[in-house]
Amino acid sequence: MSTKKDIRALTLEELKTVFTENGDQAFRAKQVYEWLWKKSAVTFEEMTNLSKATRELLNTHFVINAVKVDDMQISSDRTIKNAFKLYDSNIVEGVLIPSNTRMTACISSQVGCSLTCKFCATGRLERLRNLNADEIYDQVVLIKNQAEQKYNTPLTNIVYMGMGEPLLNYKNVMESIQKITSPEGLNMSPQRITVSTAGVSKMIIKLADDGVKFNLALSLHAASDEKRDRIMPINESNTLEALAEALKYFYEKTQTRVTYEYIAFKDFNDGIEDARDLAKFCKHIPCKVNIIEYNPIDDGEFQQTTPERLSAFAKYLEDRNIIVNVRRSRGKDIDAACGQLANKNKEGFVKRKMKVNKDSGLKN
What we know:
The protein is of the alpha/beta class.
């Protein structure tokens, strides 16, 4: 097993120390840092303004654990789903979602997920580990390259809506956003980034205290505790009342409008009474509602609502001056749509998990 350190885990100051302790100039650290985070280099050989001796020094002591595209599928609607292979052979998924006005990267923050939401394929996978900041960053770079190479269009938006709960990997998610938005990194606007959470109240408060500049989305999906408990176990420890208080605090601190994501399930949360509950919840802070078309997964426990019920639901909210967008699913034919990530890959995911655990001496 390699004893080399992951160079992207080092700060700029730590890199300076590496060079000075090895008899080199401290300014080399800034050169390397730029190659890693601005130019997205994945090998030391790419760092052509460094001497051969310096590159050999880096190769001797460090490694760049670059994420690779293990498999790629292109939908009939141009959506691209990627299976990304990590340095330890684990797999996460990320999606490029093209539209007339945007090129959006949907990226993962964890290998698997621990929240077990009833309607989500990813929730059926065990959470194996958090992603490191560089692994999250790499997904953005790879999807950005796909947007430019396949569609000749720059990446415009990033959503942390792939596998995992971003706020349960807070440190690495925040660090990845810093690298993506920094002038020393990809220099993307934080206003082009949305972090989606299933609702971790104390971490929403922390986001507010940290003064974040990116957008926040809450996966709501029901505006009564009774119904939300049934489909999202996290609601038992993060009730709607607790979430409302956290969101009020977030808005007071950031003045950022929050988005509520609401998947409409047939005969479960798509009635006028449900719309009434949602409208009441929307009164807490300035917000908008994205009503999302449901993409059924294998067991068929939930079904997609009818166009008539969806229209009536949206109209009820609009009549009460709530901003509503109805989101049609993209990439359904390749299982890249909302809630489908890891659905068809589950068998391969489990096999890879078994192999990784076997190689590391862990029991399944």
